[in-house]
Amino acid sequence: METKNFYKAIAPRPIALITTIDEKGNPDVAPFSFIMPVSIEPPIVCFSAAPQRKTLKNIRKTKEFTLNIPSKENLNKLWFCAQKYSGDNKIRDSGLTEEKSIKVKQPRIKACIAWIECTLDSEREYGDHVLVAGKVVEFDAAEDSALKTLLHIGKDKFTISGETISP
Ligand SMILES: Cc1cc2nc3c(=O)[nH]c(=O)nc-3n(C[C@H](O)[C@H](O)[C@H](O)COP(=O)(O)O)c2cc1C
To answer: Nearest CA to 22 among 45, 51, 50, 55?
Structure first.
């Protein structure tokens, strides 16, 4: 098999709808499944973005972002957020509702099931993506959120968690 397809073996992957704002204060939101926690103390989370992503441009300007973890109820709106967009408020136009974050300027997505507010720690280019590390400055989650997490298989295929098994 082609080695460039290795990432398809690391699936399904949790998704974060990452919210940012641009220099005018206009909010943006986009789904990312190349995400992972990398340190508990201090709390640090990473995600990987193609260099052309608006998310990356906004973070470079404002040094902040929020990971909003969606459930399956958000799937169609999430799909809208993955498309090219040229308006001034993708959150509103996707049908998602924003609410104030606790510690950072960009809004949270109300209907999500967990929220991780971050300030930029660092970024580093890896091949065709840029790895972004964020210091976690605020975290909230709905009860049982881990059982409702929407997972990405690839392209337009998704699945959900929901079953708990133990060794
Ligand atoms: C479920 C899902 C997961 C995605 N994960 C990533 C990702 O981890 N990194 C990335 O750069 N793009 C990812 N994308 C693509 C971007 O979300 C999408 O192309 C982007 O929102 C378009 O915004 P742009 O105009 O800022 O490029 C993903 C798309 C979907 C549907």
So the answer is: 55
Of 14, 51, 47, the residue nearest 160 (C-alpha): 14
Q: Which of 103, 55, 100, 106 is nearest to 81 (CA)?
A: 55
pLDDT digits 0-9 by tens, 83-134: 999 999 999 999 999 999 999 999 999 999 999 999 999 999 999 999 999 9
Give the binding-site residues of ligand 1, using a 6 Å CB cut-off. Answer: 15, 30-34, 48-50, 52-55, 81-82, 84, 152
Token pair for 59: 């973070």
Minimum CA distance residue for ligand 1 atom 15: 82
- Cα 36 to the chain's mean position, in Å? 10
| Interval 55-92: pLDDT, tens | 999 999 999 999 999 999 999 999 999 999 999 999 99
Q: Whole-prediction pTM value?
A: 0.97
CA–CA separation, 152 vs 85, rounded Å?
A: 21
Question: Comparing C-alpha atoms, which of 8, 11, 29, 6 is closest to residue 161?
Answer: 11
CA pair distance 38, 5, nearest whole angstrom: 23
51 in Cβ contact with 95 (< 8 Å):
no
